[in-house]
Amino acid sequence: MHRLRTCAARLRPLTACQMAQSPSQPRPAQAPLRTFPQPTRHYTAPVAAEPFLNGTSSNYVEEMYYSWLENPKSVHKSWDIFFRNANAGAPPGAAYQSPLPLGGDLRGPGLGQAVVGSQPSVEKLVEDHLAVQTLIRAYQIRGHHVAQLDPLGIMDADLDSCVPTDIITSSDKLGFYGLDEADLDKVFRLPTTTFIGGNESALPLREIIRRLEMAYCQHIGVEFMFINDIDQCQWIRQKFEKPGVMQFTLEEKRTLLARMVRSTRFEEFLQRKWSSEKRFGLEGCESLIPALKTIIDKSSENGVENVIMGMPHRGRLNVLANVIRKELEQIFCQFDSKLEAADEGSGDVKYHLGMYHRRINRVTDRNITLSLVANPSHLEAVDPVVQGKTKAEQFYCGDADGKRVMSILLHGDAAFAGQGIVYETFHLSDLPSYTTHGTVHVVVNNQIGFTTDPRMARSSPYPTDVARVVNAPIFHVNADDPEAVVYVCNVAAEWRATFHKDVVVDLVCYRRNGHNEMDEPMFTQPLMYKQIRKQKGVLQKYAEKLIAEGVVTRQEYEEEISKYDKICEEAYARSKDEKILHIKHWLDSPWPGFFTLDGQPKSMSCPSTGLNEEELENIGRVASSVPEEDFTIHGGLSRILKGRAAMIQSRMVDWALGEYMAFGSLLKEGIHVRLSGQDVERGTFSHRHHVLHDQNVDKRTCIPMNHLSSNQAPYTVCNSSLSEYGVLGFELGFAMASPNALVLWEAQFGDFHNMAQCIIDQFICPGQAKWVRQNGIVLLLPHGMEGMGPEHSSARPERFLQMCNDDPDVFPLIIFTPKSLLRHPEAKSSFDEMLPGTHFQRMIPDDGSTCKNPGAVKRLIFCTGKVYYELVKERRSRGMEDTVAISRIEQLSPFPFDLVKAETDKFPQAEIAWCQEEHKNQGYYDYVKPRLRTTTDQARPIWYVGRDPAAAPATGNKKAHLVELQRLLDTAFKLDAFKGHS
Length: 982
Prior knowledge:
Layout: H1 3-11, H2 16-20, E1 24-26, H3 58-70, H4 77-87, H5 120-142, E2 162-164, E3 187-189, E4 202-204, H6 205-216, E5 220-223, H7 230-241, H8 250-273, H9 288-301, E6 306-310, H10 316-324, H11 328-332, E7 340-341, E8 355-361, E9 366-372, H12 382-396, E10 405-412, H13 413-418, H14 420-426, E11 439-445, H15 454-457, E12 474-478, H16 482-499, E13 503-508, H17 526-534, H18 538-549, H19 554-575, E14 580-581, E15 596-597, E16 600-601, H20 613-623, H21 635-649, E17 652-653, H22 655-668, E18 672-677, E19 692-693, E20 701-702, E21 715-719, H23 725-736, E22 741-746, H24 757-764, H25 767-771, E23 778-782, H26 797-803, E24 814-817, E25 829-830, E26 843-844, E27 859-863, H27 867-878, E28 884-889, H28 897-906, E29 911-919, H29 925-935, E30 942-947, H30 958-973
Domain Transketolase-like pyrimidine-binding: 653-824
Family: Belongs to the alpha-ketoglutarate dehydrogenase family.
EC number: 1.2.4.2
């Protein structure tokens, strides 16, 4: 390989693919800092005697090279020839040409002219400087691949035992750059893209390599060169390359030791007291506690007042105790098998619970609020929830830049790489309506997932590679080096404060016990756990280091241990007094004052939701206008707005206008409304149009609902990324922050909540029972059998009904919204139904001609949703308005027993049927039937009208859909259809 061509090619920006193609060799296991033999001859850098190189630094050469790549005419002709010849493959010593006389042919090799006038000494200088710059860049890009990250010394954190060829592991590898041992003592100028020189602008090659190894190949591995911002890359280089940056004062070391004592002895105390209990302890990654406390300390110093955290179960009890500062007795009493449950709910296992605590940060002497969000065993499901709660806290305190409120997310290595919600959450990080202005991610990298080897658990070199998609720097660190851990965490917190972007700290550690304390890891990882059994604990190693340095005495160290052990013992004694488990002590998102008023329980009844006519007209005017001047809207939208204005004139509203009235009235009362989901600004069915777009000016938009009044609350309506799981989790977290807001998530089609089922099953439905978590999230799920196929029909109401507990104090949560009814001529309401004194109707009884002679009614059909309008149309066409009554149950859960009973009593001679358009094994039938039977006379059977059972939600054939619908309607109105059927 030609030396100069190698150097020139490596000066070009490398893609990830090109990096991966670099030849490599087997990596030595945890090699120490490399040294090279002294050369037999000593050299000094040759002086550039030629006029065009006089006074030229390697920085200048590099700058010219990049300038030449962009425009060959931007550099001197001699440099143009040099770079063209080198790129064309000129052999060493042949690329340089002296400038030719005026008018001479300057074409290089490959363009028809031989190379002439070479001056090897000058070219050698240029080549060597370019080679050294390339070498520096190689360490910056790939140095982390050979960093000593595994505390056990047996695994490669990147799953690759090979050393990149361009990393200097021995003197013979210098040939890759066209250098040899004789060049080790030559002095080279350093480029502006490195800080290894400190105050020196030039260093011998031997020292350059040594400093690069110190910066990039020890216990810290830095991935950042994929970031496309030069200033950010320079900032990171400065933090890790400057000599002596990782220095700690005596006091800082003593504080770190004390934190390591607390982290380690807490786990040992639990092990002594409850050796047969699961606790998912932190053994093997005890440095996590000082890591988190460092991030919080540095962030507090930078002005952060509120930190919201999410994490899986490993180490949660330790974090609660030593970071959040939960009372130890409250933790210890959770291990008491005789502890009685309080009335708040079913509760959850101790390592899923959350906590909210406001205290003084002792390092910064500032108030800080810490909350750890409760979450289930779905390890990464809490990620978007934390982000949403963080966004809400920022919104409500006016923290537009994220300087006062921040989030920290903890992850396991296998889950971080394996669960798609991590990717979904990262992709919210820079979206205007979802950004939290930077999250610090901390990965507890056990190098194993339960029993699965990482080589079987991921396809990427590192578990953290998913973070590269958002240009987040990744700091890998050996977790058995507490000082390296603390330094990296300081840098991560500073990065977040400086750039307000995500950053990842990868704590490469091990798991001393199995997946839990009862598990036997030797079954599947015998070699790893043989090494772990021999591994000295990190606290012991660090204490011995500090004692050897004279930072602490052994007596002081032992006294620190005794002091914390005493704290634990005293808390253990107090925990014996706890007889009842109060879940409220573990609330992560309190709503102060919401459930009590003057010491008395708040009424959970629903007040009147009506508005006076003037308010309705005012909101309607805004809904049908463009508040901003010189704003050009689409012609089709002009017709829609005119249609809205006409409805207001006639005192009528359809679904879209009714939604406008609801949102607008809340905003005028000072209640924030946030609507999020895929395409919600316009509405999937082009019915909403809450955001108007100027047809002539790019990015100019108008939200009329933010022009209702001068003192209204803001309206947030935002199209989400194409995500259900992540975005619904985010909105759940947002709704968690305050009861005085309406937070809605709308699915593009109701079926699409399938992709967010984890949030529904694990957070929304059981959240109150497990964690006493109050939440006001509202789901809008378009639902209706309209011949659009299996994936655009059913919002699966049966699932939600199955999960309801029918508590009369629980408000409706899921709204099955319409599609075809958005423009149905009969699906409208009068202003009269929205005036003061009106309420939400849990059931809408039949108020037609059947009421004149109830005794003559032969059939009473209960239904809900779109099928009502099809039933009414069919009844009209058959002339059966006097003999068939149709009543709509608008609120299915809690079931309106009182109203249903009054309706059935009104028609004593009528058969009772439940009609639904969904299949019999889906929809509402299984939920409604026993409740109808409870409500009515047991002698009156409850008949089913609807589609037969099916595995899929709907047919994909339009004709088959219409046949099924007609069969349903025929059954509903043939009064003898039920004879002989039960």
